[in-house]
Amino acid sequence: MKLKLAYCPTACSMAPYILLKEASADFETMDINLGKGEHLTPEYLRINPKGKVPALIVDGKPLTENLAIQLWIAQAYPQANLMPKDSFDYFKAISVMSWCGSGIHPKLTQQARPERYSNLPSSAESIKSLGSDAMFELFAIANEMLTDREWFFDHFTCADAYFCWCFKRGAAFGRDQSVFEHCQNHMTRMEQRASVKALMMHDEEVKIHFSQTQ
Ligand SMILES: N[C@@H](CCC(=O)N[C@@H](CS)C(=O)NCC(=O)O)C(=O)O
What we know:
Blueprint: E1 3-7, H1 14-22, E2 27-31, H2 42-47, E3 55-58, E4 61-64, H3 66-76, H4 87-112, H5 124-145, H6 158-171, H7 181-191, H8 194-212
Parallel strand pairs: 1-2
Antiparallel strand pairs: 1-3, 3-4
Helix pairs in contact: 1-3, 1-6, 1-8, 4-5, 4-6, 6-7
The structure holds glutathione (GSH).
């Protein structure tokens, strides 16, 4: 099986990257520079007409949407145990993942791309600040979920990888997230995993490559 992950540094393609590493999958990345608009080229739009990363290309066939990609990885590599075994927890994990994608992620985009939310002059700061407040409300919920827990479920799952990206991306907007002690501890545990160490190395390498090809 040939796997290629459409990937951009700091973007949400980090989550499937972590999971592919957790699964010891043999894969390569197709590095897409969002800053240069490479997600909008005709070649990339043939892979994902929505013009987003991630996309996972499986034997030439593209799969899009983070939730679907992560569940595909979990199913393709059962030995990696990337979803809860208990059937109700399985659906609860999908619930957390879906919330990362449709609840938290839009609040991150609101801060990163305020111009997409209003074309009124001087509105950007207010849009970003509302996004940040909403993100904090969501992180407070996650903090509650992670109280006295190592992972969202009884072992590391896709939900941990997806939330880790959300919390990491949130931190990049500069507001002090240390109030979310359990999320912070979760992040520390994530950073100790070989998959996340490999991700951070790859992310840096791609950033350097992008800066050299500007
Ligand atoms: N619904 C998509 C959203 C993916 C998404 O928004 N990806 C961002 C990076 S984090 C992206 O490609 N943005 C490019 C753009 O919107 O121009 C998913 O869950 O995979």
